[in-house]
Amino acid sequence: MIASTSPVFSSPTTSTSRTNGSFADHEPGLWRAVITQALMDAATSSSKPEAKRIRADAIFWLLHPSEDFDEVCDNAGLDPDYVRSRAIHALQRGCTWRLPAGQGWRARARQQLQQQEDAFAL
Q: Per-residue pLDDT for 3 more than 80?
């Protein structure tokens, strides 16, 4: 007889595992990692021949419609057209993932707030 305290045979509500979900609950994150890796590969500036080939493959995969790309995006829970548009935008910016200091939405919000405070102070 197997002991009822065995984590292998316990019910999901009494499981001693570190997460409460199944593998399927975490699968979208794995597919998002595939997309992230493609973006990182597309952003590489390495001059090594293999890195150049990987970069070209990643850019082609991100920018050209394919069933494979669509399936990866679907599995990641993302809209393929949106991912492609953001990849194009990132590539046009030279794959910089963050805007320079003072150019993001938070800086604009602070500027607007400061303008409102200045107008109220007058």
A: no
Domains in the chain: how many in total? 1
The beta-strand segments (E) located in 17-110 are none
pLDDT of residue 11: 41
Q: Rounded to an integer, what is the distance from CA 56 to the centroid of its chain?
A: 20
Number of helical H runs and strand E runs in the chain: 5, 0
The boundaries of the domain holding residue 91 are 22-121
Summarised one tens digit per residue, pLDDT across range 60-90 is: 999 999 999 999 999 999 999 999 999 998 8
Rg of the chain over all Cα atoms, to the nearest angstrom: 23
Q: What share of residues in the chain are helix, strand, coil (percent, to 5)?
A: 65, 0, 35
